[in-house]
Automatic annotation (TrEMBL):
An example Gene Ontology CC term for this record: cell outer membrane
Taxonomy, superkingdom: Bacteria
Pfam families on file: SusD_RagB
Residue spans crossing the bilayer: none
Gene3D superfamilies in UniProt: 1.25.40.390
Keyword Glycoprotein: no
Protein name: Putative outer membrane starch-binding protein
Keyword Signal among UniProt keywords: yes
PROSITE patterns (UniProt xref): PROKAR_LIPOPROTEIN
Length: 575
């Protein structure tokens, strides 16, 4: 990771400082025998492979590193990081994310930019190395094999660039890093879009398919992965460029469903795409391999392990990471007196309860032998303590039994159903009882051989169904949209469930489509993008959140720390 940190720190702000390119070498004719330089780095096939792979670990980290996950979720109607009796106030930074009142001086506005450009520069550096190989046979490689690696790096860079375009819109296209001492100019969103589209379309034919890689496909960009990125690009094109590309999105989705870019299939269980077997799942279009002993970024501080209430690890029987500290929880659907809020957006748990036979509504429970049921931590969480006695998860502020509810307030030791006198429910008035917690990736007990072994599923085949369904809905084909959604939704309900959409699609509205995106892709780091695409990110009302004064917060400011280094950059409008 030394090279990772080096490039991230020297190139991240696109100043491309020339100081480190010359420091430490005063005799330019000196022959260096004891260190690696750009000229002698690639000597063997393994060197090429290491060079090829070095951007991928940073890519995995970036799903949450640099506050990327937090910004995509906490700015929406889905998750919250409230002030829990002094915990997580942190200078009000998370409240500013919730209220869309962030400024360029908030560190996370620089952090996300740096994290994503760290990936862009790493991928570009490796890309230049591999493109400079004129004789692949010297490294025991065929030209097709080398071209495939180059195509994967271009696709990886496109994934970073899509996220930059989505979050900042006015970005710099980094096409070369070697020998560069200054970053390039920002380009229009239209130019960035066209460049990313071209990169993906040109790379796609040289990419492997999932089938050609077999069991080693996880963590590798394939034709299916590149096509899925085109789907994301086209689905959001109207937001990015002002011109919709829903027809192109539908074409790519239809081709993917037909197997043009590799064979994929939905899992029959809702939890299988997130379970320890998902590295070889036919639903995983692109993922990052994870393991307990090595890398497992989705479980780390920036994501799901901090989406657990205090002491919930005792309930799981998983104690390897210590006890939890709940940074995230789902926003409430009810006030402190249990009355449902009237706004249409948000209320994620109530959106699940709309279809009461949803198997995901069960309380999460480990069943033994690497199996679990349910997706939510709610109510009391009983367990057998170290003394062999039945106990329940308790507060660190009492300690009193915690009862997790779809509400936010100072409930403290109040029993369920008891009305409390303090009626305030907002980001600055929560306790450890407040909120329900989703558990998508399993927390099997410490004794389970498959604990913390899931790959991170960045792109699931279900996304292709939902993207095509949205395209059909927008084109007026509600029946076609309902059929696609039901194909995925069927696994969430019993056979012949009344919760499946009617075949004519008459139940589908803009709000229902957005709600269904929220149910299927809850806490998968895309909620902000979906709200912006449906035009409600700035205009919508949800818990403790009123509409914005205008829409400039649909994109983030470029952080002041970035601007201080890269004076050629212009701040985004409105900041």
């Amino acid at each position: 990771m030394k090279l990772n940190r080096f490039l991230s720190s020297t190139l991240r702000t696109l100043g491309l400082s020339g100081l480190l390119l010359t420091a430490g070498c005063t005799n330019l004719d000196e022959v260096l025998y004891d260190r690696i330089t750009s000229e002698n780095f690639l000597q063997t096939r393994q060197d090429v492979i290491r060079d090829f792979l070095r951007a991928f670990e940073h890519a995995y980290w970036s799903i949450q590193g640099g506050s990327t996950f937090m910004l995509q979720e906490n700015s929406t109607d889905e998750l919250m990081t409230p002030n829990r009796q002094g915990d997580w106030f942190d200078g009000g930074q998370y409240q500013r994310v919730h209220y869309h009142t962030w400024t360029p001086n908030d560190g996370y506005t620089s952090d996300a930019w740096n994290a994503l450009y760290g990936g862009v520069t790493l991928a570009t550096n490796s890309l230049e190395d591999l493109q400079g190989i004129t004789d692949p046979e010297r490294f025991s490689m065929t030209r097709a094999e080398l071209d495939g690696m180059i195509a994967e790096l271009r696709t990886l860079r496109a994934w970073f660039n899509i996220r930059l375009l989505d979050m900042y819109r006015n970005i710099v296209l980094v096409k070369q890093v070697k020998g560069q001492t200054q970053g390039g100019p920002q380009v229009s969103p239209q130019e960035a879009f066209a460049y990313i589209e071209q990169e993906l379309k040109e790379s796609l034919p040289n990419l492997p398919t999932r089938q050609s890689l077999g069991a080693n496909s996880v963590g590798r960009w394939t034709q299916g992965g590149a096509a899925a990125l085109l789907t994301r690009l086209y689905l959001n094109a109207k937001v990015y460029t002002g011109n919709d590309r829903y027809a192109d999105c539908a074409t790519v989705c239809t081709d993917m469903l037909a197997g043009k870019y590799g064979q994929y299939a939905l899992e029959s269980r809702w939890d299988a795409p997130f379970d320890y077997t998902n590295a070889t799942s036919s639903e995983t279009v692109f993922g990052f391999p994870g393991s307990f002993g090595l890398t497992h970024w989705q479980y780390d501080g920036g994501m799901y392990f901090w989406m657990l209430p205090v002491n919930a690890t005792f309930y799981f029987g998983f104690t390897d990471f210590g006890t939890a500290n709940p940074k995230y929880a789902m926003q409430p659907g009810r006030d402190v007196d249990s009355t449902e809020y009237s706004f249409a957006l948000g209320k994620p748990y109530i959106k699940f309860q709309k279809y009461p036979d949803d198997v995901r509504l069960k309380t999460y429970k480990n069943l033994g032998n690497s199996r679990r049921e349910g997706m939510f931590l709610q109510g009391y969480l009983p367990y057998v303590n170290a003394n062999g006695n039945v106990d329940t998860v308790r507060s660190t502020k009492g300690p009193y039994p915690l009862f997790f509810r779809d509400q936010v307030g100072l409930f403290l030791n109040a029993k369920p159903g008891t009305r409390i006198t303090n009626k305030t429910s907002n980001m600055n008035n929560a306790d450890q009882n407040s909120g329900i917690y989703p558990v998508k990736y399993p927390y099997y007990p410490s004794s389970d051989p498959n604990k913390i072994s899931s790959a991170y599923a960045e792109i699931r085949f279900a996304e292709i169904y939902y993207s095509l369904a949205e395209c059909k809905y927008r084109a007026g084909d509600k029946a076609g949209a309902a059929a696609l959604l039901n194909t995925v939704r069927a696994r969430n309900y019993p056979t012949n469930s009344p919760s499946l959409y009617k075949t004519d699609g008459s139940q589908l509205t803009d709000q229902e489509m957005l709600d269904e995106w929220g149910r299927e892709f809850l806490v998968e780091g895309r909620r902000r993008t979906d709200l912006v695409r449906w035009g409600v990110f700035n205009t919508g009302t949800w818990w403790d959140k009123q509409p914005d004064a205008d829409n400039h917060t649909a994109i983030f400011p470029i952080g002041q720390n970035v601007l201080n280094v890269s004076t050629q950059l212009k701040q985004n409008p409105g900041y």
